[in-house]
């Protein structure tokens, strides 16, 4: 179970209103992608869902439960960042295990979950290495592994491929699609890459200046863009 509902989410930083009333419903198991120009509020929206930002008004519901003021660790969500955010002094294995350890998960359970994520992401050869001894693609796989072991109902990804070169981007994208199929988990994913959006998404949410311009399947947006902004973004001929 991992449904999400956003009700009229607003968020201001000082006098600047960054999210101007976002309404969205995401079904359990759906892969939803947020696209939009730099600065339009994509990361702020993800961080608000995760509880890393307090919203100014509105409500966040997960599985029908209002979590608007619930701390991040209690939302059943985990987030994968563009910059990996791994601990440099810890091995790959310990990076994956740390969150579980902090949550008081029994050692045998931690071992089992880390082993499973290691297998799903082919991380076995790297378990004893530190992040500095890995390539960018390997680091991002560790970051995804660290999210996997939490067994969240909802995965949030903030431009997870944007620091990778073209070949690794394709490979990691395919891997994320496979994980989505295998886990059946709900995934919400920010990108500014059209190909990523078109290939991964069940539905795409087009954001612009803190509002939603359009929500639809990749083909709906491509064939019937609501306006010129969406058409320009999705690349459909005018
Ligand atoms: P995106 O991810 O779409 O590029 P962001 O959500 O990061 O956009 O940012 C949206 C706007 O909010 C930007 O104008 C940004 O400068 C501003 N912003 C984001 N985080 C903060 C913050 N912590 N304090 C002040 N302004 C912020
Ligand atoms: Mg961002």
Automatic annotation (TrEMBL):
It is found in: Cell inner membrane. Keywords: ATP-binding, Nucleotide-binding, Transport. The keyword ATP-binding applies. Residues 4-234 form the ABC transporter domain. GO terms for molecular function: ABC-type maltose transporter activity; ATP binding; ATP hydrolysis activity. GO terms for cellular component: ATP-binding cassette (ABC) transporter complex, substrate-binding subunit-containing; maltose transport complex. The keyword ATP-binding applies. It is a peripheral membrane protein. Belongs to the ABC transporter superfamily. This is Sugar ABC transporter ATP-binding protein.
